[in-house]
Amino acid sequence: MFDAELTRKVEKLLELCREKKFMIATAESCTGGLLAALLTEIPGSSRVYERGYVTYSNEAKSELLGVSHDLITRCGAVSEAVAVAMAEGSLNRSRASIAASITGVAGPGGGTVEKPVGLVYLACVGKEALPKTSRLMLGASSRQAIREAAVIEAVRLLSIQASR
User: Fold this and answer.
1) Strand bridging mode 119-126 / 129-137
2) What does the pLDDT read at residue 129?
3) Buried b (16+ CB within 10 A) or exposed e, 72-86
4) Could you tell me the CA-to-CA distances from 29 to 4, 47, 70 in Å, in that order?
5) Which H, E and C letters describe 90-105, residue by residue?
6) Per-residue pLDDT at 1
7) What is d(CA 135, CA 128) in angstroms, rounded to the nearest whole number?
8) What's residue 134's pLDDT?
9) Centroid of chain to Cα 74
10) DSSP assigned state of 126
11) 7-16: b or e for each residue (b if 16 or more CB lie within 10 Å)?
């Protein structure tokens, strides 16, 4: 399902988290649980992966993660601020030590001039650590390519946060 290089990166991430006794939570929108699927592809991941939220709608972001309606209205669901709020919400609503979130426009429709297809924001937060964020501008790639690139970036951010 996932390529061998990405799987190796996730195995290293999970091993690092096991060593540090870190648990991971995820909050995903445009990737629809693809990050959770990748993390749970590895045998023994249940010792590290605590839970995941797929919050595709704005209502789900608010109800499940506590992202304020005001923040979504002011910044838009596809924004750095909402990505950070999603990650913080999943961290605060779990037993996880670190949490990653992904929100974006995977296309092929749904983009605007301000927020085009291929725009993705990610955040990774940890207890007692500053958030790490990332903004991807992937252009009008395929939906699959955008989602895969977002997941790869989320693994990178989780690895940075776990290394602290």
Assistant:
1) antiparallel
2) 85
3) beeebbbbbbbbbbb
4) 25, 24, 18
5) HHHCCCCCEEEEEEEC
6) 78
7) 23
8) 98
9) 21
10) E
11) eebbeebbee
Beta strands 119-126 and 49-54, pairing class: unpaired
Taking the C-alpha atoms of residue 63 and residue 44, their distance in angstroms, rounded to an integer, is: 30
Q: What is the pTM of this model?
A: 0.97
Closest CA to 67 of 76, 32, 39: 76
**Per-residue pLDDT tens over the stretch 27-38:** 999 999 999 999
CA distance 62 to 10: 29
Cα–Cα distance for residue pair 64/77, rounded to 1 Å = 14
| Amino acid at site 42 | I
- Cβ–Cβ under 8 Å, residues 123 and 101: yes
How far apart CA 64 and CA 56 sit, in angstroms, is: 11
Which strand (E) or helix (H) includes residue 70? helix 69-75
Closest among 140, 85, 144 to 115, alpha carbons compared: 140
Give me the pLDDT at residue 140, please: 82
Cα gap 10→5, rounded to integer Å: 9
Low-confidence ranges of the chain (pLDDT < 50): none
Residue pair 126/161 in contact (Cβ under 8 Å)? The answer is: yes
Which stretch of DSSP H or E encloses residue 28? strand 24-28
